[in-house]
Design a protein that fits this description.
This protein is α/β, with parallel strands linked by helices. The strands form 2 sheets. A 5-stranded mixed β-sheet has the order 3-2-1-4-5, with helices on both faces. A 5-stranded mixed β-sheet has the order 8-7-6-9-10, sandwiched between helices. The chain starts with a strand and ends in a 17-residue tail after the last helix. It binds 5'-O-[(R)-(carboxyoxy)(hydroxy)phosphoryl]adenosine and zinc ion. The site of 5'-O-[(R)-(carboxyoxy)(hydroxy)phosphoryl]adenosine has 20 residues, from helix 5 and helix 6. The site of zinc ion has 5 residues, from helix 4.
Length: 351
């Protein structure tokens, strides 16, 4: 089955063609980074307008790079939740138009769940190898969640961030350090500066309650702010603590210390989730922050220690893309799922 995937939930317009739920024949991503860079974040109205301009050429490009004509498409999958409502609307409308005009099935896909699927795309492991039960980790700019996955339509969220998403915390910490957009990858690069001391600053590692599987990154972000700008005067008790001079060495040390704490917080919660799920066979990971060098290394070690199969996307499929939508859409279609032309965009995730 050839599935055309469409993704417009945030600031990337993407279309992809996937065969058999696994083989990515093409994946085109039109990024809006330049449009939003001067505002330091995604401006929803500008995002929707840019999607409107990009959607048709992006779909055309995906089909032509796959060497296919529209009539070769057997089904259309679209990321219809969660996301910015105006952005989702563009992709959902385009997907309905394609499905209706071609007379093929339409399926709506949850974008967060699709991040968990991304590592199975172009994966050399036989599709027949059992993936479930799995523990899933999604860490992106908008989401940070841990799941138990028993089937692609049976996911239970075990925990999630109670404040900032991990990628959001990276982006804000990068801004505090004066790094250019996109913050996450730049902070990751700075943290790997030779000689950077990851113990220079004792940043907090959020634990929450002893049994919690939720995460929190706002304290870590504030700690970075205080480390760079100094600790403010608190109710007259302590004099303000001036910051250490922000030399190149200090910036690299702060980046490395931030990276150490952020990754440790995620690993701690994954260990807890796995302790409670000894039957888990697989660790499914996805989302933009799974491109992080330290997190990737630590996830690989965790999987090895726990004898789990690690499913993690290559770097280009960690971030938002339509191939993961087409891939998961294909599996849902195989299990009999169909949506009608009444499919609506929804700002929240299903679970
Ligand atoms: O999955 P994604 O493209 O979009 C959302 O669904 O949110 O994730 C984007 C996020 C951004 O916050 C970006 O800074 C972060 O992923 N990111 C990284 C790295 N690469 C991307 N964060 C830390 N280290 C990286 N190497
Ligand atoms: Zn995403």
């Amino acid at each position: 089955m050839i599935v055309l995937g469409i993704e417009t939930s945030c600031d990337e317009t993407s279309a992809a063609v996937v065969r058999g739920g696994r083989d990515v024949l093409s994946c085109v991503v039109a990024s809006q980074h330049e449009i939003h860079a001067e505002f330091g974040g995604v401006v929803p109205e500008l995002a929707s307008r840019a999607h409107v301009e990009a959607i048709s050429p992006t779909i055309d490009a995906a089909l032509s790079r796959a060497g296919l004509a529209p009539r070769d498409v057997n089904a259309v999958a679209v990321g219809h939740r969660p996301g910015l409502i105006g952005s989702l609307l563009v992709g959902v409308t385009a997907a309905k138009a394609m499905a209706w005009s071609l007379g093929v099935p339409l399926v709506g896909v949850d974008h967060v769940h699709a991040h968990l699927y991304a590592g199975l795309l172009n994966n050399p492991v036989e599709p027949s190898v059992t993936t479930f039960p799995a523990i899933g980790l999604v860490v992106s700019g908008g989401h940070t969640s841990i799941y138990r996955v028993d089937a692609w339509n049976r996911l239970a969220r075990l925990g999630a961030t109670i404040d900032d998403a991990m990628g959001e915390a990276y982006d804000k910490a990068a801004t505090i350090l004066g790094l250019p957009h996109p913050g996450g990858p730049n902070l990751d690069r700075l943290a790997r500066t030779p000689g950077a001391n990851e113990h220079a600053e004792q940043f907090p590692i959020s634990r929450l309650s002893p049994t919690s599987l939720d995460l929190s990154f706002s304290g870590l972000k504030t700690a970075m702010l205080y480390a760079v700008r100094g600790v403010p005067h608190t109710r007259g008790r302590t004099p303000p603590v001036p910051p250490a001079p922000l030399t190149d060495q200090r910036r690299a040390d702060l980046a490395a210390s931030f990276q150490r704490s952020a990754c440790a917080a995620v690993l701690l919660k994954l260990e807890r989730a796995l302790d409670r799920t000894p039957e888990a066979r697989t660790l499914l990971c996805g989302g933009g922050v799974t491109a992080n060098s330290r997190l990737r290394d630590q996830l690989a070690s965790l999987a090895q220690r726990r004898s789990l199969r690690l499913v993690i996307p290559p770097l280009d499929l960690c971030v938002d893309n339509a191939a993961m939508i087409a891939g998961l859409g294909s599996v849902l279609l195989d299990s009999g799922h169909r949506d009608t032309l009444a499919l609506a965009p929804v700002p929240t995730t299903a679970c």
